[in-house]
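Recap for those who missed Tuesday's class. We walked through two folding examples back to back. For each one, the amino acid string is listed first and its predicted structure tokens come directly after. Nothing is annotated here on purpose, so try labeling regions yourself before you check the end of the notes.
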Amino acid sequence: MDFQNANGGLVGSVRRLTDSTIALLKNRAELAILELQEEKARLISASLWGGLFIFSSLMAVMAMTCTLIFLFWDQKLNVAIALLVLYLIGIVAAFFLLKRRLKTPAPFAETVAQLKKDRAWLQN
């Protein structure tokens, strides 16, 4: 039996197995890196839009509050209480909407799925 033959035999089989394993690991690493870059871009975008939303909302709320209190100066306490209740309702609604928006697939879901497939294939 010729163990030195690179095209067949034990050495050739080990070499092909090693090459296949390295290619598989390289492929999975590239997928993980791609998903990490996508997750980073999504997080940066969400942070920027969230910051703009918070700033704009606060400015609008302050302007509306001042305007309504000046318009109804005789009833300023009642107006302030009504606005407080309105703002609290808005806070609760925004919390639940944000919570629903952040429910996205887990990061690296595709990488984990591929690794599970690889593991199942190797076990069979």
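Example two. Treat it independently of the first, because the proteins are unrelated.
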Amino acid sequence: MLVARKCTRVLALAAIAALPVIAIAANRDPGVNQRQHHQQHRIQQGAQSGELTRGETRRVQAEQRHIRHEERQYKSDGVLTRDERKALHQDPGAASRNVYNAKHDAEIR
């Protein structure tokens, strides 16, 4: 009887501990994270090759930080609404165009 109670308590505590993980997983948007990872790779490649100047690199890095901050804000209440998800998917598109334009302008390092 005592062993059964301990098992029940352990299972209940494990279930309670798993709730935040389940909530976080439900609000993840792997598409945005994948795009940001790809953008970071493009920025690093552009900085190494000289296609991006230091100022351009700082600017597009700041834009990436803003997107990550916005994503954290949207997810902070535990719910990612349709409008928030739409905004999160639009921001990386604009950032991608900015990286492309910076890499293909006449400025070189």
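Answers for example two:
The radius of gyration is 21 Å.
Residues 22-26 have pLDDT under 50 and may be disordered.
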